[in-house]
Amino acid sequence: MRAPRFAGIWLSYGCHEGKHLFPEASRPVVIAGPNGSGKSTLLEAVLRTMYGFRRQSPRERTLLEHLTPWSGAQLAASVDLVSASGEVLSVHRDFTSDDVKVRDSAGGEIFHGDGNPGSGSRAYKEYRTMLEEWLGFGNLDPYRRTAWIGQGELVDTALSEELLRLSTGGHRRVKSARDALKESYHELTRKPIDRGQAAKRSDRRMEELHSELKDLEDRLDREQRAMAGRQPLVERGRELEAAIGQLDEEIARMEAALEPLAERRAVEVESREALRELQRLEAAARELDGATRELERAEEAWSALGQGALSYPTDFEGRLSALDVLWEQESKLGERLSERAQALDPRTTGSVGVIMAAAAFVAAGAAATALGFQVVGIAGIVLGFLLAAVGGLTLWQSWQQRDEARQRESGIEQERSELRERIADTLRGVPAADDIRPETADEHRQRFGRQTEVGARRDAARTELASTLARLESTHAVVGPRAVEDDGRHGGQETSPVARGEGDEVEDRALRLRQHLEVESSEVRRSLAASTYRLEANASAGEQLPEGMAAESGAVEEGLRQHRVSRENLREELTHLNRELGDAERGVEAVLRLEERREQLRLEVETVEADVLIHRLAWSLLGDAHREFRERDQDRLVESISTRLEALSSGDLGPLVAQRSLEDASVRMYDKMLPLDSPPLSFGEKHLLHFAIRLGAADFLAEELVRHPLLVDEPFTHLDETRARHVWDTLCAIASERQVIVTTQDRLVLDHLGVRPDIALTGPSEWRVGVDPEGETALRPDSSQAPEPGQQTGLLADLD
């Protein structure tokens, strides 16, 4: 519940002059002071600033005159109200003119106008609406009867229906409706609306009609006896009237059945349309489910290939073909390298041997020359040199051939290295490239084939799903993001998500479309069920038709046409008969007028009697509702009062019991039930009882209204220390939910309770916020003057 509080007041009001702030606390704010110090005046000033005085009342006008500030300043006050949301509002009232200004915490003016509670101006109505939002009441009277307990006013507390009327409970509105109904009923008849009530003295509409009808029937009877000579014509006229009446009845029945039959035909058409629509939606759902399931199976097959297979590039087949050629070329180069290695034979070894033999011959020749065999030595030396020349030539040729072979081998190696680089380039970006060799190429080719096949299946399934979506979405509006491209040439047509690589969106669109189809199907089923119900409810449309007539709108229309023709013929015959009767005796016109007037009167009597019966039934129903609402509100109020009474009396008093009405309520005292004004109740116990009634009524109203602050003037009067403690504890409990401000002159009770007053008034003319030497907050003389109208005061001024 909302719990606003009064945060402070500035006033130039009677004996008070200055300002004061009410602390925010979880216990009651206590204003203490001796008699004549202005406690009650201060408490009253808070609410009078909000609500003002009713100058139409002599008592309040006199009270206002006695509140002229003693200082001679202008009678005015400002109250700072903190709303439940924490917003601080300043309400300033000039009591002389009843001009009210309301400002917010920023100083902005949110209202300025008439605050006179006796005024009916638009400005005051606006201000009263604000008061209801802030404090729950638009005027002071209900506040005074519940949450403002003035000094000495507890003795005037009464447990009566009036407390319920202050509530927003339902019984008050039902009672107003009953009063209006009763007034309307007595305009119809003098009979009492309820048993035990006396009838009205004068006749009302129903009695007057009965009297007029009786007189008319007497006159008609006399005229009919006088018309005995024309009886055959009269009887024929009656037969015609009866036949016309029967036709009218049958026409009315057919007209009443015609609309339901037409509606039934329309419902049947609607049902067939709904059934076709449901079949169309179900077919679309099956088609969409088929395409979706095919895509799911393709996705599952794709996932089953494994991570490696999913990474093959799309040109993997072409790369394998190129690799076959490169591998073959590399193999041939390897064979050529092997052949070159065999061609490099060790022929240089023979050349070296020849050279070594030549050296041996030269050495032998030199030795022979040294021994004196010069011819032999020279021949040996010449032969050695010749052999050395042959060996050197051979050795040179061998070196030349080896260099050429090495150059050719180097070229082959270079070519082979380039082939390997081309093979590596071809395998770049291919998963498991190290595993791709000539002997494993077929295995990888098969894996790539499976990947291509499954990928083609997945793309085909996704393309089919996209095509299905495009077709179905053209006839089923789907709410949500759509893949739409509008470049000025396609007119905003949806492009293929597969072509754009938006596979996930295709699946999202399919899910949204499936959900949309389910919603549409559900709506169509509900519509079909409603149509079926209407058909069943309308099944009895043709039961009131004339016998033998088919319950079809065409047959009924034809029957209506024939009946109307027959009725017109009978009416023409009746008109002709009446003309003959008129010619035979002019007195028949009087009879006819009397009969017509009699029928009118009978219809009026039936209508009034029906209205009377309806009023009685409504009176009975509203009576039950009034009792139900009143008993419920009364039980809630009695329970709230009992809760407070038992807490205040520590269980010695209570609960309160009201068997019939609040005026007959009784209270439990120990083991006995006593009337509220019973002599066994002491003055202090009656004080507690009255206090509990006020608190309970405030709680009762707070259930549906704002928890307005509770203002209690002298709550400890006539109470002993124990009961005073109970009252204080109860007020503390209430202060945890709403603001409580109390006044007292009994310092002994405060000392007993261990409570220091928040405001200590020391004299009737001393008023200012301060701290006395004992540390208590006090009000001391202040010479500050009243602010000009509209000037910022109170907490708002302090905030500035």
Structural class: alpha/beta
DSSP strand tally:
16
The helix fraction, in percent, is 55-70%
Shape: flat
Low-confidence stretches: 479-501, 764-800
**Mean pLDDT figure:** 76
Largest sheet, spatial ordering of strands: 2-1-4-5-6-7
Tally of separate helices: 19
Could you describe the 3D structure shown?
The chain is α/β, with parallel strands linked by helices and 800 residues long. It is 59% helix and 10% strand. The chain contains 19 helices and 16 strands. Strands 2-1-4-5-6-7 form a six-stranded antiparallel β-sheet. A five-stranded parallel β-sheet has the order 8-12-13-3-14, with helices on both faces. It has a three-stranded antiparallel β-sheet with strand order 9-10-11. Helix 6 (170-186) packs antiparallel against helix 15, helix 8 (231-304) runs antiparallel to helix 14 and helix 10 (348-371) packs antiparallel against helix 11. The longest helix has 74 residues, at 231-304. The protein is flat, with a radius of gyration of 58 Å. The two termini are 31 Å apart. Mean pLDDT is 76; it is low at 479-501 and 764-800.
Question: Keywords, please?
Answer:
five-stranded parallel beta sheet, 19 helices, 16 strands, flat
SSE diagram, text form:
Layout: E1 5-13, E2 16-21, E3 29-32, H1 39-51, H2 58-65, E4 76-82, E5 88-94, E6 99-103, E7 109-114, H3 122-135, H4 140-145, E8 148-149, H5 161-165, H6 170-186, H7 205-226, H8 231-304, H9 316-343, H10 348-371, H11 374-427, H12 441-473, H13 503-537, H14 553-584, H15 587-648, E9 653-657, E10 666-669, E11 672-675, H16 683-702, E12 710-713, H17 721-735, E13 740-744, H18 747-753, E14 759-760, E15 769-771, E16 777-779, H19 794-799
